Automatic annotation (TrEMBL), chain B:
GO terms for cellular component: plasma membrane. CDD domains: TM_PBP2. Keywords: Cell membrane, Membrane, Transmembrane, Transmembrane helix, Transport. It comes from the Bacteria. It is a multi-pass membrane protein. Belongs to the binding-protein-dependent transport system permease family. CysTW subfamily. It is found in: Cell membrane. It comes from Streptosporangium sandarakinum. GO terms for biological process: transmembrane transport. Its main location: membrane. This is Spermidine/putrescine transport system permease protein. InterPro entries: Bact_Polyamine_Transport, MetI-like, MetI-like_sf. Gene3D superfamilies: MetI-like.
From TrEMBL, chain C:
It comes from Streptosporangium sandarakinum. One of its GO terms (biological process) is polyamine transport. GO terms for molecular function: polyamine binding. It is found in: Periplasm. CDD domains: PBP2_PotD_PotF_like (cd13590). This is Spermidine/putrescine transport system substrate-binding protein. The keyword Transport applies.
């Protein structure tokens, strides 16, 4: 921050006062809002981790560590690991599909660029649930994909396309792909084309240029996009239920079940804390990558 | 500029992938029959039923009120915060705090707010959803505006300050006009995310004030009806118009600044 | 379009969380909003039988399409107060809202029996004043013998039924008769069977096949139940509480665990059977919240719903049995003939075991659900 260059005691104190006013005026409202509506609610949920579930639900304020020992049971750890795997896979697929897409969008003529970008966000404006149901109609036994395959004689009987982990990953990629493409686009679009030209002029092959110039420079975009896809995937509970047929569960389902079905708020809070812990590791990764860039 | 041909494959895969289910749901909304697996002829009757459904109308109005209100709130707070973070502090903790709601799982935020509202004895209603949506909306506005600020020319602001303008005057006369396109984009994003938000609304709405995603959720307990598909198609059409208009406006402000 | 800003350092993230925890330490004290373990029902408030109902208004939360669409107009006309109908999609969601301590403004809630019991145990329900509900006389005597609330102290039953097997008679060789047909399906039903996904009903087929009580708390029995459910999992299409009817209609499934009223028996070739090992008895009830400021009107509303006109509507339109003799007697004979579940008598229903809330032990069923669904 560049402060006033005017020297002198009076001007200095005025500049100090205006700096304080500036801080209060600009940072005050937003930070107050975040403390009241984010930090306090979050803190309240997380504080439940220390207490016991009431007999018929609710929280009994008796300190206990049992929620954490329960979290470490293989049953729940397995679900966490399984979710990491599914969310990780969805993130990887989204990156592999999203990167080239964002790369191409960034190179399109200005007019087409806008249209291509809008087309990426547009499905977001219908309802999430309705889009998921459309997938069920597409993939189910008597659905469009299977009936077409049977009609074409490619298969004898409908394939089992729904209700497995592959369908869950498909659903996750579908739902969060735009959140991958947008940050990637932002990062790629900022690149100076001269850098790549210079690399090519120096005799580097396109692949080499990509690995040693483009990729490192777009790393913050990659990490942000991955974070934006991974986080909601990890906490999702609708997709495993509808597209996974309830045959596998993710951390989101566990949390939802604890808060709603089991009415075990303390354990639900403990699972949320675990989710948050994973998130912090990811933020670390992101911080590390953006500092390098 | 050379564009590797191979890249076109994933590019088109992306769009086909994103739009195939959309095509299916739009087609089903014009299906005369009720079964999603048989196309029994073209019909507009589901759109007629939609018009007569008071619960959906009410949900739509609630959603628009929440989205508009939370967008205004998050745009004002987010813009101020972004300027504050970029110009008035170097704290990384505050930087992290500003982006936290954008990456926090919605489930955790929704439940936390429900518990919080209960503790402060706040009556649930549209306002409680609005305040909740502003939390994450603000994070996205802050993020977008901050990006814009890092590209902005600071010499004008310095000149303004050196000439004795207060920080607020500098903000309104110099900084804000420069930020306009970023503010518009951030607001659009906050609005979009609020319209389709389900989990947080689900926990913070009063039963008497459901938003549209909540209404849809209680209606699809027995599967999606063509009526819901008609609704989704209408939403798509309206959003398309809004996006185009917003895009035009953004370009307009961009060319003005 | 947008570029996400990211925090630049880990210490920042850690500090933020630390701050959140610190704040929580202060917030925790004021957060004891959910009353639990308060147990016994408090003494009934004094209600005025001659209260001016026109000064009151009632908000009801209920499942979609569970009461007549024109109920608010009828209530306004007959009882002279405003009725606002709001929707919840599941018992669990309604419970989360009602027990959070938040002021939801709900006067009357429709929830299933064991949830009414839990709400009462949490001290959230108003004991009923039978003198304000003369239409209670319309109920079958059996409707006062329900295990979660004997004598209808804090809840009035609205609909009741049981859980069984809903199946395609044209797509299975032998009609199912036992819970084992779901748990270990014949070859023609392999991967074409669904079971329910919510705790108690997920366990039900195995619990009954093994001859246990639906309200079992025994770890030993639940271990056997788990074993049976895990063995069944590879044969299932999936777990489904909501769209099993659609799956039967499309032929994707041929046999599903279903609540009687949700089995689309009006469709050709779709039949419902209660397995020979027996089943549960579920009841959806109406309760009045202690926090209600319109208790006289709430009683008047429940009384009105118990009239043959409104309660009969429920039987004819949602096709659930209602525990109201006057209402069931006027149900269209043809409708009854077409819908086999409607023909069950109260005596037959009472052979099913009423599900009650197990308090502390209910976490055993949550755990069971997680173990079964998380298994590969």
């Amino acid at each position: 921050m560049t402060s006033s260059t005017v020297s002198g005691a009076a001007a200095g104190s005025r500049s100090h006062r205006s700096r304080v006013i500036g801080r209060l005026a600009f940072l005050g409202p937003g930070l107050t809002y975040l403390i009241v509506f984010l930090l306090i609610p979050l803190g309240m949920v997380l504080s439940y981790t220390l207490f016991r579930r009431g007999r018929f639900g609710g929280v009994v304020y008796e300190a206990t560590g049992e929620n954490f020992t329960r979290l470490l049971e293989p049953l729940y750890l397995d679900v966490v690991v399984g979710s990491l795997k599914l969310a990780g896979l969805a993130t990887l697929v989204a990156l592999l599909v999203g990167y080239p897409t964002a790369y191409l969008i960034a190179q399109l003529p200005r007019k087409w660029k806008t249209i291509a970008l809008v087309a990426i966000v547009l499905p977001f404006w219908t309802n999430f649930l309705v889009r998921i149901y459309a997938w069920i109609v597409l993939l189910s036994g008597p659905g469009l994909v299977n009936s077409t395959l049977v009609k074409l004689g490619l298969v004898d009987k409908p394939l089992e396309l729904l209700y497995n982990e592959g369908t869950i990953v498909t659903g996750l990629v579908y739902s969060y792909l735009p959140l991958m493409v947008l940050p990637l686009y932002a990062a790629i679009e900022k690149l100076d084309p001269q850098l790549r030209e210079a690399s090519a002029n120096l005799g580097a092959r396109p692949a080499r240029t990509f690995v040693s110039v483009t990729l490192p420079l777009t790393l913050p975009g990659i990490v942000t996009g991955c974070l934006f896809v991974f986080v909601p995937s990890f906490g999702n509970f609708v997709i495993p239920e509808l597209l996974g047929g309830g045959r596998s569960i993710m951390v989101g389902n566990l949390i939802r079940d604890q808060f709603l079905n089991a009415r075990d708020w303390p354990f639900g809070a403990t699972l949320s804390l675990a989710l948050l812990a994973v998130l912090i590791v990811l933020l670390l990764l992101q911080a590390w990558s953006s500092r390098r860039a | 500029m050379r564009r590797p041909r191979l890249l076109y494959v994933p590019f088109w895969v992306t769009y086909v992938f994103l739009y195939t289910p959309i095509v299916v749901l739009v087609a089903m909304s014009f299906n005369a029959g009720k079964s999603p697996y048989v196309f029994a002829g073209f019909s507009l009757k589901w759109y007629g039923e939609l018009a007569g459904n008071a619960t959906i109308r009410e949900g739509l109005v609630n959603t628009l009120v929440v989205a508009a209100g939370s967008t205004v709130l998050s745009t004002v707070l987010g813009t101020l915060l972004a300027v504050g973070l970029a110009r008035h502090t170097r704290s990384r903790v505050l930087d992290a705090l500003g982006v936290l709601p954008a990456v926090l799982p919605d489930l955790v935020l929704g439940i936390g707010l429900l518990v919080f509202y209960a503790a402060v004895k706040m009556t649930l209603g549209l306002h409680s959803v609005l305040l909740a949506h502003a939390v994450f909306g603000m994070a996205f506005v802050t993020a977008v505006v901050r990006t814009r600020l890092t590209h902005a020319d600071t010499s004008l602001e310095e000149a303004s300050r050196d000439l004795g303008a207060t920080p607020l005057a500098t903000f309104f006369r110099v900084t804000l006009p420069q930020l306009a396109p970023g503010v518009a984009a951030g607001a659009l994003l906050a609005f979009t995310l609020s319209v389709d938000e389900f989990v947080i609304a689900f926990f913070t709405a009063a039963p008497t004030t459901p938003t549209l995603p909540i209404v849809i959720y209680s209606m699809v307990r027995f599967g999606v009806t063509p009526e819901i598909n008609a609704l989704a198609t209408l939403l798509l059409a309206v959003s398309f118009t809004v996006v185009i208009v917003a895009q035009r406006m953004t370009r307009l402000t961009e060319s003005l600044s | 379009m947008f570029r996400a800003r990211s925090p630049r350092s880990l210490p920042a993230a850690v500090l933020v969380t630390g701050l959140a925890l610190a704040v929580s330490a202060c917030g925790g004290g004021s957060g004891d909003t959910t009353a639990a373990d308060s147990g016994a029902t408090a003494a009934a408030a004094q209600l005025n039988p001659n209260a001016d109902l026109t000064k009151q208004s009632v908000t009801v939360t209920v499942w979609a399409d569970y009461t007549p669409k024109e109920l608010p107009e009828k209530v306004k006309e007959k009882l002279k107060f405003d009725l606002k109908v709001t929707l919840h999609d599941t018992n669990e969601v309604a419970m989360a809202k009602l027990t959070s301590g938040a002021d939801t403004g709900i006067d009357v809630a429709f929830v299933s029996g064991q949830y009414a019991q839990a709400l009462n145990e949490a001290g959230l329900l108003e004991p009923l004043h039978p003198e304000l509900i003369p239409n209670l006389a319309n109920l079958y005597p059996e409707a006062k013998e329900l295990a979660y609330d004997k004598g209808n102290v804090f809840s009035v039953p609205y609909t009741w039924g049981t859980t069984g097997i809903c199946y395609r008679s044209d797509l299975v060789k032998t009609p199912p008769a036992s819970w084992n047909d779901i748990l270990n399906p014949p070859a023609d039903a392999e991967k074409k069977v669904t079971m329910m996904t919510t705790e108690r009903w997920l366990a039900l087929p195995a619990v009954k096949a093994l001859g246990y009580s639906v309200n079992t708390r025994s770890d030993e029995e639940l271990a056997k139940v788990k074993e049976k459910l895990l063995a069944a999992k590879p044969h299932l299409l999936g777990y489904d509480d909501t769209t099993f009817g659609d799956k039967l209609k499309s032929g994707e499934a041929v046999m599903v665990e279903a609540w009687d009223g949700w089995c689309p028996t009006t469709e050709k070739n779709i039949k419902f059977v209660v397995p020979k090992e027996g089943s549960d008895l579920w009841v959806d009830t109406m309760v009045i919240l202690k926090s209600s400021k319109n208790k006289e009107a709430a009683h008047a509303l429940i009384n009105y719903i118990l009239s043959p006109e409104i309660h009969g509507w429920a039987a004819e339109n949602i096709l659930y049995k209602v525990p109201n003799k006057a209402a069931m007697d006027q149900v269209d004979a043809k409708l009854k003939a077409d819908n086999t579940p409607l023909q069950m008598t109260p005596a037959q229903l009472l052979q099913g075991e009423s599900i009650i809330d197990l308090g502390e032990d209910s976490t055993k069923f949550s755990r069971l659900q997680t173990e079964v669904k998380a298994a590969k």
